[in-house]
Every structure is written in C-alpha cells, then in structure tokens.
Amino acid sequence: MSKLGTPMSPSDYAQHWRANAESFDNQGCYQWMNDQLTPIFTILEIGCGSGRSTLALARKGNKIISIEANETLACETSSYLRSEGISVEIIRIDSVSLPTFSSKVTIVVGDVFNERMLQIIKPRSINFIACWLIGAYPALISVTLGKTIDELTTQDIPDYRKNVHQRCYELGSILLAEDGIIHFVDRVGLIATAPLAETQSEFARQHRKFSDRFAFNIKESDIAIKHITQASLDASQIQHIGLNDAPPEIACFMISIKAAFIV
Ligand SMILES: C[S@@+](CC[C@H](N)C(=O)[O-])C[C@H]1O[C@@H](n2cnc3c(N)ncnc32)[C@H](O)[C@@H]1O
C-alpha cells in the first residue's frame, strides 16, 4: 500500500473520481465554472475525468480538445457525452494518424507532458485552456515526479498539481491565440473567515512564479472561491486536500484563477 492511502489503479481512480464529480455536480460546481466563461471558440481541456467538466465546457465552446491520461475515464467521458447528444472523436496520443477535429469534442488519450501534443495541436489555434481540479492516480504522479509509488506522500499531490500548472503555462505560451486565457480551478483548504482579498493575493503570488515567466497576467479581482462540503471529498478515497488532520477553522473551497496571455 502506498503512503497515499488506497492502492489505486487507473480504473479504481476512475471509479472514485466519478463519485467526487457527481457530488461536485450536485453542488453546482460545474455550473459555477461554466458561469465564469464567455462563449469561446476552441478550448483545450487538461483532464476530462468522467466528463462533467467537458459537458460544461461544451455548453460554452465551439470545439473542445481534451487530453486525458486515464483511458478508463477517457472512454467514460466519450460515452457520457454521446449520451448527451454531443459528437466525440477519441484517439490515442501516439496514434499514427492525427485527429480530424470534425466532432465537437476530440479526446486525446495521453499524458499532457507528452511532446506529441505539439504535433497534434497547431500553435495559436486554442483560445482557452481549462485546467480544472487536477489530480491523478498514484502511478502517473510517481512517473511525473520521478519517485516510486512507495515514496509518494500527500505533499506530492500539490507538487504534482504545480507541475501540471507549469505545463499549462508552457503549452499556453505556444498554443494560445492572442487574448487566450488559462483557467485553473482547484480544491483548496482555506481559513473560512479569511478576507477574500488576502486569499486572492496569496494565490496570485503563487501563480506569478509561472505566469511571469511565460508572459501571462493575473488580475487578483478575477480570482473567485466557492465553498464545497467535506462530504463531497469523502465521497471517494482520493486524497484531495487532506483536511482530516487540519484545524477546525479550515474549510474546503474551490478556487478559480484566470491567467491572460500577453502577446
Ligand atoms: C480530478 S480529475 C478532474 C476531471 C475534470 N477536469 C473535472 O473537473 O471533473 C483530474 C483528471 O486529470 C487527468 N490527468 C491528471 N494528470 C494528467 C496528465 N498528466 N495528462 C493527462 N491527464 C491528466 C486525470 O486522469 C483525471 O481524469
């Protein structure tokens, strides 16, 4: 058993994530994310999970390209979207043929760190990158961080997330068109009574390490938070923000941060 808790294969992770996503959906979280978007032409989604986020994005975007490392979840999203009447093309990142992009949603099964992404997606062809609620099964985290599964600790989850965020900024600087946006949504533990302005400036500070390097601008006033119930995290055995040992004044939130590309 890894120190992250339950040993979790990609299909175990898929099952646990589905429970979390349903609970987030029932609390209006995906609607809240969707409300923050204006109509968009082409969206790149990092990690479609079980498809709730992709459905929310499909309601605002003209075309969605979603990269998903977990094949079980990629297939689940494909079936879920089709059942909602949305056309889907699904392709492996290492497939010889490139996607046709003729469907509303194209799911690329692969790792966002795979450089082939840059052959599949043309530079400056994306208007928006959605990086919502990043987390992964232990094997993927361990490969990315260069550790064995047994060496992983709960601290590696936020570290993994930072790696993915950095990758989004890097990809964004190549793939985003003028005025493109990267939208990050994450689960965080916050002091429930902390003034919003303090939270906004702390998260802007954390992101500026990457956003400054890749020429993105973050407006603190654009950073929004939404309270979520601990029960929605307890719906699965995925370790999100480890609130079990946290002081009682810490509560669970989703935080939304937009970074605008400065061309
Ligand atoms: C916690 S789920 C969130 C899914 C979805 N964005 C949502 O909001 O419901 C995170 C998803 O990102 C995928 N993911 C994590 N790291 C990835 C990577 N390096 N490349 C591609 N997908 C990744 C995971 O497999 C998982 O399905």
Can you describe this structure?
The structure is a single chain. The chain has 263 residues and is α/β, with parallel strands linked by helices. The protein has a single domain (10-261), classed as Vaccinia Virus protein VP39 (Rossmann fold), CATH 3.40.50.150. The mean pLDDT is 92. Helix content is 37%, strand content 25%. Residues 17, 21, 47-49, 52-53, 67-70, 73, 111-113, 132-136, 140, 164 line the site of S-adenosylmethionine. S-adenosylmethionine binds next to helix 1, helix 3 and strand 2.
Structure characteristics:
263 residues, alpha/beta, Rossmann fold, 9-stranded mixed beta sheet, globular, binds S-adenosylmethionine
Write the layout of secondary structure elements.
Layout: H1 10-26, H2 29-35, E1 40-46, H3 52-58, E2 61-68, H4 71-83, E3 88-92, E4 105-109, H5 117-120, E5 126-132, H6 138-145, H7 156-175, E6 176-191, H8 196-211, E7 216-217, E8 224-227, H9 230-234, E9 250-261
Parallel strand pairs: 1-2, 1-5, 2-4, 3-4, 5-6
Antiparallel strand pairs: 6-9, 7-9, 8-9
The structure holds S-adenosylmethionine (SAM).
S-adenosylmethionine (SAM) binds next to helix 1, helix 3 and strand 2.
Task: Offer a concise description of the structure.
With 263 residues, the protein is of the alpha/beta class. It contains nine helices and nine strands.
Bin the helical content. Answer: 25-40%
The third-level CATH topology is Rossmann fold
End-to-end distance: 47 Å
- Alpha carbon gyration radius: 17 Å
How many E strands? 9
Number of contiguous helices: 9
Hetero groups bound?
S-adenosylmethionine
CATH class: Alpha Beta
Low-confidence stretches: none
Assigned CATH architecture: 3-Layer(aba) Sandwich
Structural class: alpha/beta
Averaged pLDDT: 92
